[in-house]
Amino acid sequence: MTSSPLDPTAKLAQAPRAASVQKLAAALAETFDRVLTVLCAFLVLFMCVSTFLGVIYRYVLERPLDWPEEVARFMLVWLSLLAAARALRHGNYIALEFLVARVPGRARTALRQAVNIGIVVFVLILAVQAVEYLDIVIPQRATATGISMMWPYLALSVSFFLIIIFAVIDFVDWICSLLTGVSLSPAVAAFEERLALLNPHLDEPDAVVSDLHDLKEK
Q1: Virtual torsion, Cα 10, 15, 19, 22, nearest 10 deg
Q2: Where is the Tripartite ATP-independent periplasmic transporters DctQ component domain positioned along the sequence (predicted)?
Q3: Rounded to an integer, what distance in angstroms lies between the CA atom of residue 28 and that of residue 45?
């Protein structure tokens, strides 16, 4: 049986080395993504429990605790920054894409990667500053819990590291997709889907955008 020209499995077979690298990068990103999802879920849970305890002790038992509000605040910091990295992975950042929708297929994907490179450069600058700032806050102690302020500020460095990892993996996926004709990046799928909504008459993309989960099932 002859494979359809749009069959992503057939396209991957045309460039086996690029496909292997692409799948490896996608699997690595998926692993990071799952770990982030679990961590964010636990942070939300612990933040809710901490806030609930604070309310109960303050307004019901009338014996207010010092630490619940501070713990919830630190968890919110970690949650926000980890979610920011995951948002890049799935292409959920707010962007002005109505002009990009008028750019042809290959130029459009190249422009998107140029934006990613700009993000990496910017985040690298911030990451260096964040690591240097850790030396300043290590001796400082939180008011209620007494933990080192390094722990809440460490969220910056971790988030920036993950953002860079996801951006690099996305770039590798784009390079490989030039050979395989298939993108395994969920950010690319979300990007093309939004552009299709902005302009229903977009030219057909050069690469067939396929969801990673669908490919794994095949």
Answers
A1: -130
A2: 47-175
A3: 26
How far apart, in whole angstroms, are the C-alpha atoms of residue 56 and residue 65? 10
Question: Which 8-state DSSP code applies to residue 148?
Answer: B
The better pLDDT of the pair 5, 101 is held by 101
How many Å apart are CA 25 and CA 195, to the nearest integer?
25
Long-range contacts of 134-142 (CB under 8 A, 24+ apart): 142/70, 142/74
Q: 88 CB contacts (<8 Å, ≥6 apart)?
A: 119, 163, 166, 167, 187
Indicate the range of 3-12, 43-52, 76-85 predicted with least confidence: 3-12
> Minimal CA–CA distance to 18: which of 145, 176, 131?
176
Which sign, positive or negative, has the C-alpha torsion 34, 89, 212, 28?
negative
